[in-house]
Design a protein that fits this description.
Elements lengths: L7 H23 L8 H31 L14 H7 L33 H30 L6 E6 L7 H11 L5 E7 L2 H12 L8 E5 L5 H5 L7 E10 L2 H11 L5 E6 L23 H4 L12 H6 L5 H14 L6 H27 L1 E7 L12 E7 L3 H7 L5
Parallel strand pairs: 1-2, 1-4, 2-3, 4-5
Antiparallel strand pairs: 5-7, 6-7
Helix pairs in contact: 4-5, 4-13, 11-12
């Protein structure tokens, strides 16, 4: 008589199979091979060596920062100390009068970087973006008002073009163009949005079409920011220029400044970010070639052959000639990410100290080589303990109307 196979053995076999992996894991984790050091101990040793190297690098960085700051920093009011509060107070914060602030709930939603830019409402990012647009609008409108008063006295009339360098999808450019058009319709102000990313410019165009701006109020130019002459040629010679750039990544901040120099020494308002990306060198392309590798941000943000770091004689005099490049590289990287492992306060302090020096280097270069009045400020409501990308680089030709405006901006 044939019997059916029992189902019990397979179940027992399955149970054994499920228990087998943890047994093997325990053996591998606890049994040394040929009495050599276990992987866990080896990793601890590697971590210990990494900690020692990091501590040594942090010590050398602190010494470098101390040596640069020893005699004080240019453009800043007092000597720094090792406290976060002291460094926070070194850079003045822009104070926009309530009467001059943008009333976001009263303007076209397309102009709002939160609603038009589709940033989630109520988030810190959305509030910061509004503050950034508010700061740029207040500064540019202050310059334009002063220029108009001067032109009225001289019985002259020159239009003004704002160049948004590295405009992206237009969170800043669309807001500026729309605000000047709606609130100051009699002013001859237009905006040229420049970016190497044609896809971003198409998104900007789509957003701007819904607000029906007057003809020629907002124009776009797909170009590498390093192609200064090509960009400048888009603007009639009889117009004044203001160059603005929000979160100009890496060397784009330096290119925006150079663009201002090329446009008859125009004033600039720049908010830099990602300083370490400027260390990447990219090919210096011919003036007629706007093609830039879009595969990686660090390639788009890398410096061209005409931009060298450090930028200023001031910072070069503070660094060792034999290790100048290495020391500047360290400053730029610390400005971005600090030095780990650190507490959040220690990390932000290292970033703040290094970033102040990197941005002052840019401003001092404009002062030394191009005769600019320059100023370092921080945007309103941008706490450096929380957010490290709130600096404003301001510059205008010495003795110009714009320079007087920038030096008199309200701050605390």
């Amino acid at each position: 008589m044939r019997t059916h196979p029992s189902h019990h053995p397979p179940k027992q076999q399955a149970k054994q199979e499920t228990m087998l992996p943890p047994i093997i894991f325990v053996l591998l984790a606890t049994t040394p091979h040929n009495n050599k050091q276990s992987p866990l101990t080896s990793n601890d040793g590697d971590e210990s060596r990494w900690m020692r190297r990091t501590a040594k690098r942090r010590q050398s960085t602190d010494q470098l920062l101390d040596s640069i700051e020893a005699d004080g920093l240019p453009l800043l009011s007092s000597l720094p100390s090792t406290s976060m509060q002291s460094h926070d107070n070194l850079v003045p914060s822009l104070q926009i009068p309530d009467s001059s602030s943008i009333q976001w709930e009263e303007i076209d939603p397309v102009l709002d970087p939160v609603q038009g830019g589709k940033i989630r409402r109520g988030t810190e990012r959305g509030l910061r973006k509004r503050d950034q647009v508010d700061a740029f609008y207040f500064i540019t409108s202050s310059i334009i008002e002063a220029e108009e008063r001067t032109q009225s006295k001289q019985n002259s009339s020159e239009g003004i073009t704002i160049i948004d360098a590295g405009c992206g999808a237009g969170n800043l450019g669309i807001a500026l163009a729309g605000l000047f058009s709606a609130q100051h319709p009699n002013r001859d102000v237009n905006l040229l949005a420049v970016d190497v990313n044609n896809q971003a410019l198409r998104r900007l165009d789509q957003r701007s079409q819904s607000i029906q701006l007057p003809s020629n109020t907002l124009q776009t130019c797909c170009a590498d920011l390093a192609n200064y002459k090509h960009i400048a040629s888009q603007i009639p010679s009889n117009r004044k220029v203001i160059v603005v750039s929000l979160h100009a990544c890496g060397a784009a901040s330096d290119m925006a400044m150079n663009l201002a120099f090329q446009c008859n020494d125009a004033p600039f308002v720049i908010c830099p970010c990602c300083t370490a990306k400027s260390l990447t060198k990219r090919e210096n392309r011919s003036s007629g070639d706007n093609k830039v590798d879009m595969a990686a941000s660090f390639r788009r943000s890398g410096s061209t052959a005409d931009i060298e770091y450090p930028r200023s004689c001031w910072l070069r005099s503070k660094l060792q000639p034999t290790s100048m490049t290495d020391q500047y590289t360290l400053l730029a990287k610390v400005a971005d990410v600090g030095l780990g492992p650190q507490t959040p306060t220690q990390q932000r302090l290292a970033q703040t100290r290094a970033k102040q020096i990197v941005e002052l280097d840019r401003l001092m270069s404009a002062s030394e080589s191009s005769g600019y009045d320059v100023r370092l400020m921080r945007m309103q409501h941008h706490d450096p303990c929380v957010y490290g990308k709130g600096e404003l680089l301001l510059g205008a030709k010495l003795g110009s109307v714009a320079a007087r405006v920038l030096m008199e901006l309200p701050c605390r």
